Amino acid sequence: MSTTAGAPASSAPEPSTSAPGTDPGPGPARPSSPSSPSSPWKIATASLIGTSVEWYDFGIYATAAALVFPELFFPEMNRALGTLMSFATLFVGALGRPLGAIVFGHIGDRYGRKKALIWSLTLMGAGTVGIGLLPGYHAIGVVAPVLLVLVRMTQSLAVGGEWGGAVLFAVEHAPPRRKAFFGSFPQVGDGVGYFLSTGAFAAVGLLGHRALLDWAWRIPFLLSAVLVMVGLLIRRTMAESPEFEAAQEAAEAERDPAGAGATPAARRDTPFLSVLRDAWRTWLLASGAFLITVGGYYIVVTFMSTYAVDDLGFSDSQAAGAGTAASLVVIVCTPLAALAADRFGLRRITLIGILLHVAVAFPMFWLAESRSVPGLWLAMCLPMLASTVAYAAIGTLVSGWFSPRTRYTGLSMSFQTAGLAGTLAPAATTWLFTAAGNSWTPVALAFTAMALLSAVCLVAQERRGTRAGAD
Fold first, then answer.
1. Which of 181, 190, 253 is nearest to 21 (CA)?
2. What is the pLDDT of residues 278-330, one digit of tens each?
3. Residue 326 contacts residue 197 (beta carbons within 8 Å)
4. Contact indicator for 157, 99 with CB cutoff of 8 Å
5. 406's torsion region: left (phi>0), alpha (psi -120 to 50) or beta?
6. Which segments within 114-163 are labelled E, that is strand?
7. 3-class secondary-structure state, position 361
8. Which stretches of 85-124 are assigned E, i.e. beta strand?
């Protein structure tokens, strides 16, 4: 952690690259028993459940965007254009994510991580259930896709504050030598949510494409209500982050050192403005570092699913089944990669994972073109393995680039800025694929370029921190 953890935001240099909880400022989480509300295991489990709901919600949307939304909401267009428009709703709807990062980041940095996470989960679940209740184009015409985008934006607003808070909640309660391991639980939740979402679509896909279009697609969306209720019940029992409480006490002492009240400058200061003023380079480089883990995920889940069904002749259920297999890779390998990061270093393992995307960019298409179910499974599992290695520790790594006072906002803004670009990836790769005469080569090259950009951004920020003496 940098020395800015206890300095006024208005005069602090940009934060460092060490993991949260390892500096002499607020300090690591206090030891607690396994039954304590602040037990790292309980906190990590709560974070896992929350992000499971998040990625279940987004997983079913991404799968539906690939398999059924083109016919449900854009039936007047040909299949290729309808698919492109369906993927475009991923991007347009995701415009709420940066705003959500600012809003929930402000709540999390000013009023508590726990409060922000409870509200984000509630709003996210409401948006997902709302999508499951929407009428299609044949019922209300052009209003249907408009409502889809609006509800999607509500969902994205909530997601903007979910992942960053879940990572911080786990990391700030974790013991110093297990920051990456406990901080990886939200990423395991990604795999659990992806497993549940693709499993749900694989199950309803067995009813046949007609039933899927008529009514069965709604079932996975409506089931989200059950997951949200479970997540809320668990989150309400959790204790607040000790690092947040320590940072709040320090900030209060600085604002009112003699009991005379906060100064005008202190009253105007907000986490969002602090990030823009003091850590804007860190924010931009962190966003670039996140790009392949977010954008690559969307390419695998959406573009690969559509390519498998529309161009290679796989059924909806087979494509969803391959996605389910890929989610198991995330669930099993994420904790292992995080343990390796605790042992060998956050930056080293994260960089290895990012560069693995380059190694699998072309092989994943070669495997899919075998037109066999095992080949399709490998085509989706290999890039997901690369993503898992990078994603396991990157949240813990990047959270250490921001001070505790702005950490929720900085981490969330970075992740959601990358998410905004990442949700454009399916539409962009679909356009590249079509423009190249249904050739996947430009898609593989774009996938490679995203990985290289992420690697450059990560190395650049780590070198900035090292030059500043952060380590």
1. 181
2. 899 999 999 999 999 888 887 887 788 888 988 898 887 788 788 888 888 98
3. no
4. yes
5. alpha
6. none
7. coil
8. none
